[in-house]
């Protein structure tokens, strides 16, 4: 009688061990698959952010060059008398450019903030 109970307990323990082993292998493989998927997604996001960063850097260089040009012209106008149609036309163009530049700057800062948040989220 004692041997039968011992054999049954052994059999039950073997079944439980087998079930837990199969479950752990399944969980491990699912975890590895999702981890691989997360890595691919992260790499795609990183590539996209880097592409956008390159685009923004090119635009920033362009805007900075234009800003330098406008500042030189403004310095010249500050030295001269500010009368006549030439100055009014120049001032109108300058204000138009300045407005566009401020709009671009706001968009760039928003993008930069989002980029920094993404970097912090992914530990870069």
Please tell me about this protein's structure:
By secondary structure, this protein is an all-alpha fold. The chain has one domain (2-121). The chain contains two helices and no strands. The protein has helices spanning 2-79, 85-121. Helix 1 runs antiparallel to helix 2 (85-121). It is rod-shaped and about 115 Å long.
Task: Report the oligomer.
Answer: single chain
The helix/strand class is mainly alpha
Mean pLDDT: 83
Proportion of helical residues: over 70%
C-alpha Rg (nearest Å): 33 Å
How much of the polypeptide forms β-strand, as a percent range?
under 5%
The run of helices and strands is HH
Q: Span between N and C termini? A: 65 Å
Please write out the topology.
Blueprint: H1 2-79, H2 85-121
Helix pairs in contact: 1-2
Summary keywords:
124 residues; mainly alpha; 2 helices
Question: Outline of this structure?
Answer:
The chain is mainly alpha-helical and 124 residues long. The chain has two helices and no strands.
